[in-house]
Amino acid sequence: MVQKGYRVEKLIHYLILSILAILFLLPLLWMLFASVDPGAIQALKMPEKITLDNFKSILSEAAILRSFFIGIGISTSQALLVVILCVLAAYPLSRYTLKYKNSFMMTILFMTSLPMTAVIVPVFQLFLYLKFQDSLIAMTLFLTASSLPYGIWMMKNFMDSIPLDLEESAWVDGASIFQGIKKIVAPLMLPGIFTVAIFTFTGSWGNYFVPYILIQSPEKLPASVTIFQFFGNFGMVNYGRLAAFSVMYTLPVVILYTISQNFMSKGFSLGGATKG
């Protein structure tokens, strides 16, 4: 009787998970089918004719390609800056006994909970005062600063898991603190580094609100904003081109995840360095 009840409960769990998987899969299938369908509509349907005209139309527009390169430049720059700054900030928080470390960490934790809508108005006023509006560099620096609290918090947790004995051995051999970070800490922290980098890149790549507010020139808008140009007036939407744009829009994140898996697996394999 107990075994039968366990089977029923297990079946219900699998049924719920299957329904959730289908709900997530349907939009992806629509995006893939509609991107190669010349007569794509809002509903999911198999294309009567497969064509790449939607992708050719997207790739032939200089404005769309420019928005992709701008978005990649912003997201990549932000991810690199956040990783470098978070490693440098997390190291003393993890390795040294600081007087106000707990208060500082609690402040960081509080800052991670602040919504962007709560700070964008004073930031916009600051940009106007400093004449930084419509500046991609200033916006990238602001996005970097807004990503630092969560990045530092995650990076410190990853760094806490690395034994200090490894660095002390390197110091005995004559290595400096920065050499220890470069040759000992960084290789062992590859999973954490790529986790922070992916989190930062995807957050920046999909950020619509900040560029829409801080950038006024249409030629400077990233792909996260230009995607809305496919929604015309009176509900007119070119679903085929929208789907093709969406497929291309997901490629950088998919490629980043694919590349990072190899490095993250190497990082985890280095986790046994203290054994032996």
- Estimated structural class: mainly alpha
Shape: globular
- What series of H and E elements makes up the topology? HHHHHHHHHHHH
**Biggest sheet details:** none
Mean pLDDT: 83
- Give the termini separation: 50 Å
The proportion of residues in beta strands is under 5%
Task: Using the coordinates shown, work out and report the CATH topology of the largest domain.
Answer: MetI-like fold
Provide the domain count: 2
The CATH superfamily of the largest domain turns out to be: MetI-like
| Helix residue percentage | over 70%
How many beta-strand elements? 0
Which CATH first-tier class of the largest domain would you pick?
Answer: Mainly Alpha
Helix count from the secondary structure assignment: 12
Rg of Cα set: 24 Å
CATH architecture annotation name of the largest domain: Orthogonal Bundle
**Uncertain residue ranges:** 267-276
Membrane topology: Multi-pass membrane protein
InterPro entries: BP-dep_ABC_trans_perm, MetI-like, MetI-like_sf
Organism: Niallia circulans
Pfam families: BPD_transp_1 (PF00528)
